[in-house]
Amino acid sequence: MRPVWLLTLPVSIACATASGRSATQTPAAAAARESTSVMRPQYPSTYQRRPNPPVVIRNATIMTAAGREITDGSILFRDGRIVAVDATVDAPADAVVVDGTGKYVTPGVIDTHSHLGVYAAPGTDAESDGNEATNPVTAEVWAEHSFWPQDPQIPLAIAGGITTIQALPGSANLIGGRSAILKLIPARTVQEMKFPGARYGMKMACGENPKRVYRSRGPSTRMGNMAGYRAAFIQAEAYRQRWDKWNQNHQGDAPARDLRLETLAEVLRGHIYVQNHCYRADEMAQMIDLAHEFGFKIRAFHHAVEAYKVADLLAREGTAVAIWADWWGFKEEAMDGIHENAALVQNAGGRPTIHSDSESGIQRLNQEAAKAMSYGQRAGLPVTRDQALRWITANPAWVLGIDSLVGTLEPGKMADVVVWSADPFSVYAKALQVYNDGWLVFDRHDAARQPRTDFELWQVPTPGADR
Amino acid sequence: MIALLLAQTIAITGGTVFPVSGPKIEQATVLIRDGTIVAVGQDVSVPADATRIDATGKWVTPGLIDGAGQMGLVEIGAVPAGREGSIRNDTIAAAFNVAEGINPASQLIAVTRIEGITTTLASPGGHLVSGQAVLIDLAGATIEDMIAQSPVAMVADLSERAKDEGGGTRAGAAQRLRAAFRDALEYERRKTDFTRAQMQPLSASAADFEALLPVLRGQLPLIIIANRRSDIETALRIAREFKLRLVLAGAQEAWQLAPIIASAGVPVLVQPLDNVPSYDALGVRYENAAVLARAGVKVVLLETDTHNSRNLRQQAGNAVSYGMTWDQALRAITLSPAEVFGVASRYGSLEPGKVANVVVWSGDPFEFSTAVEHVYIRGREIPLTSRQAELLRRYRTLPPTY
């Protein structure tokens, strides 16, 4: 089901305050549009699907991430949409035929937690654009305004089968700003990459990072962190009320615009998802209480190395987790990471996703999912291959609110498709072809289909056709 | 000694044995007695008192060796109290041997060894000359118990990270390294003058020079971290000038120099999954290890993240994906590091007389679906448990019982 807001994105953020009433109805509204920036387009997506011939991949193992794994199956997509997935499919005469013998096909991989583009390679201070560490609450900053489309890490991630990312601000701040949901494609501008219709996320961070960064001015403790979130949302509540009231009839002057509170108010309205960096189980419980106090939902706890300790609570709340297969020990709050985290969350009825938070790890989320699946299975937890594939496809799609569009191989879904050289849960598997919305953005055996960023030209040696 | 007294005779029978020193042997037996491998083959007679481990259908390899990291020298990355790998304010820290900083009770040790890594480097870092690395087995109650060899190498750095100690420049770093070597030789010639302070001050202390002398005599390998092609060339140049036993580490652009490195007989320590360009190595790529191996360079594969040293097998599997042969990759995490660190007479392969570091796997060790079934370190079976295993046990049913 396609949510209504998908069709109205440019203004949905701007006047998501409007209670279903058209802003064009009254002269007052027209005047308001003239008088206030909030009524104008807010950094819209300019994404456009490339025209491409239909593609049929035959005789492959199709892993749908929707319950089925079809050995010796086929998939047809055209005009950016999956048309058919089955043992055999009828393909039009003009379809490009890909022989999938011995190959595996999965949905495009989605990374819910990336800093690509905001912490771009080559990693100097000049590209360090991920943490606006000047105030503990910077809900006003948007990751897309930092994002550099020429980050040479982008083609590396594409070659790993990634088709969509959430590019997030860092975790220095209690509230770090808006995330960007991006199609991972070569582009000149971030606007061309913005996933059409996707909601924003808002980054929040628990624990060690904010209290370390703001030690001298505060917050310097976990209780200080909590007070900081609460103070911000108390302000946001009042702001939301002012705007909701004005939006009812546009009488009088529009309230003063405050970017910081605008984002927070959208969280309170449920239009922006909270993406919460939070390692420890007890802190997740605190954040859930915070969400209850202000009436919003936390969409996912990110990093969440202790999710398994409160897996029942997370399942009850309907909050997903975005976690690593095995990172642990790099700081105190990451001490208790275990391999079976994802499997235990799954087993409790929760929604795990495997994320990268890494320019290296994003290139092999399939391997990380394989690791988490294997350890879960060895511990006797009933994890299926389909579930584990969902950890890097359908579940992250849900975390980003785009699960009706991507994340599985089902008719009607966007044709984000990866062809693998072998079982993607094998260490030896490589992405051979990556289709994004039907566009073949990467082909391991065709140098002309291995995009390079401007940055790489001349100074980064060409890896050759078989990289 | 206590470890030896508690050891016993163990026969691992029926498995596919990868001795590494030779081709794989189907349905073979590895016989271990008192901590040492005593026989490997299809026709090994098993003594009556031996503990028999049926490895039918399993793969048996030497314990894996991670030639990188700070095992025992770091507990929680961000907590300084647990970090022992870098001595402060010492550009030429040659006398600094990390051994006494090792914590045999570190929880990382159990987490790592139950994944088939039985031996790791414990390496200093952070300076132009960071000090002496040691090789440790991941078992033992005391530092002495754990040490396989100390030192195994002197560690120096000519990568971008070392620039600060070279006055902010690469050339400065190289010159300071040369000056330390020249001063060490001068010190050796004029020890008496040095102790009586009857000469110009030199660039380091007597202890540091003493520590550098085995390096300058070609007795102790010098690991130089260098990533950019030109820095690797500088390392090779300095090694020629001083006739050093050079080992390159990091070496992200080494693939561009593969024939030169091969003909110089210099081994290279590589992390296969490095491929993100930085100004220290814009040419970093996944195929580095394979290109070097194909040229005949002795390659050692690394997992440099100490907490996840256990991912060495994933690193090796990816090296295979990007062009190494499977056999080359296994050798690069067993016998090759043993050779590079000068312990190949005792470590790195399944041969009579070698230390019984042995792993029984359910299948291909590089695959995620493969489980570790048995780990032996110095002939003793390691219980497959760790703090993480206890956390799993505690929380697999909620609420937990305390």
- Please, what is the average pLDDT of chain A? 93
Distance between the termini of chain A: 39 Å
Structural class of chain B: alpha/beta
Binned strand content of chain B: 15-25%
Q: Tell me, what is the CATH class of the domain at 4-25 and 109-407 in chain A?
A: Alpha Beta
CATH class of the largest domain in chain B: Alpha Beta
CATH superfamily of the domain at 4-25 and 109-407 in chain A: Metal-dependent hydrolases
Sheet with the most strands of chain A?
8 strands, mixed
Uncertain residue ranges of chain A? 1-24
Which series of helices and strands of chain B comes N to C? HEEEEEEHEEHEHHHEHEHEHEHHHEEEH
Helix percent band of chain A: 25-40%
CATH architecture of the domain at 4-25 and 109-407 in chain A: Alpha-Beta Barrel
Quickly count the helices of chain A.
12
Q: Note the gap between the termini of chain B.
A: 37 Å
Estimate the strand proportion of chain A: 15-25%
DSSP summary: helix tally of chain B = 13
The tally of strands of chain A reads 17
Global outline of chain A? globular
Folded structure, characterized:
The complex is a heterodimer of chains A (467) and B (402). Chain A is α/β, with parallel strands linked by helices and 467 residues long. Chain A is built from twelve helices and 17 strands. Chain A has a domain at 4-25 and 109-407: Alpha-Beta Barrel (TIM Barrel). Chain A has helices spanning 9-15, 27-35, 153-158, 208-213, 222-249, 259-268, 281-294, 311-317, 341-347, 365-378, 385-390, 394-399, and strands at residues 55-63, 69-78, 81-86, 96-99, 104-107, 109-114, 162-167, 175-178, 180-183, 201-205, 273-278, 298-303, 320-323, 352-354, 417-420, 431-436, 439-443. In chain A, strands 1, 2, 3, 4, 5, 15, 16 and 17 form an eight-stranded mixed sheet that branches. The longest helix of chain A has 28 residues, at 222-249. The radius of gyration of chain A is 22 Å and the shape is globular. Chain B has two domains: 1-62 and 348-402, Urease, subunit C, domain 1, CATH 2.30.40; 64-342, TIM Barrel, CATH 3.20.20. Chain B has 402 residues and is α/β, with parallel strands linked by helices. In chain B, helix 4 (170-189) runs parallel beside helix 7 (229-242). In chain B, the strands form two sheets. In chain B, strands 1, 2, 3, 4, 5, 14, 15 and 16 form an eight-stranded mixed sheet that branches. Chain B has an eight-stranded mixed sheet with strand order 6-7-8-9-10-11-12-13. The interface between A and B is large, with 53 and 42 residues.
